[in-house]
């Protein structure tokens, strides 16, 4: 069972997303879980919580790409489109909505523009996708 703080975060996330608008709850949950995945990739899973675990918009977009491909493979773009996520700027919009509602935090250097055109969805989620071989 997740720690209470994580349960509280997802409860707040659900409450926020119900009235948010452009994206369904699944999109916010995906970005929230993908952020944890990305932080683990960038800082390592053994990083103490007190240490700065910030990731940039570009790092988050790359992490969300990897996370989506790991979950859905070649269907990743289709799933994200179903949630109205058609480009990396949508990740930024979701992140900044979560920041605005105090579910996530940002540094003074963070800008929504950090998420603009980090990669092309068709290329990054379909054309460049390779099935990992397990030898």
Describe this entry's structure for a reader.
The chain has 6 helices and no strands. The protein is mostly helical and 135 residues long. Helix 2 (25-43) packs across helix 5 (88-100) and helix 3 (57-72) crosses helix 4. The longest helix is centred in the N-terminal third of the chain and has 19 residues, at 25-43. It is globular. 25% of the residues are buried.
Give the helix/strand layout.
Blueprint: H1 4-18, H2 25-43, H3 57-72, H4 76-82, H5 88-100, H6 121-127
Helix pairs in contact: 2-3, 2-5, 3-4
List keywords for this structure.
mainly alpha, 135 residues
Give a short synopsis of this structure.
With 135 residues, the chain is an all-alpha fold.
């Amino acid at each position: 069972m997740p720690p209470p703080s994580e349960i509280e975060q997802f409860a707040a996330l659900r409450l926020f997303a119900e009235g948010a608008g452009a994206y369904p709850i699944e999109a916010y949950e995906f970005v929230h879980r993908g952020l944890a995945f990305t932080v683990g990739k960038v800082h390592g899973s053994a990083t103490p919580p007190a240490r700065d675990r910030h990731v940039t918009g570009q790092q988050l977009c790359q992490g969300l790409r990897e996370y989506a491909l790991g979950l859905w493979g070649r269907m990743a773009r289709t799933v994200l489109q179903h949630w109205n996520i058609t480009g990396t700027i949508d990740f930024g919009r979701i992140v900044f909505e979560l920041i605005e509602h105090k579910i996530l935090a940002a540094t003074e250097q963070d800008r929504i523009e950090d998420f603009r055109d980090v990669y092309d969805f068709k290329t990054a989620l379909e054309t460049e996708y390779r099935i990992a071989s397990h030898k």
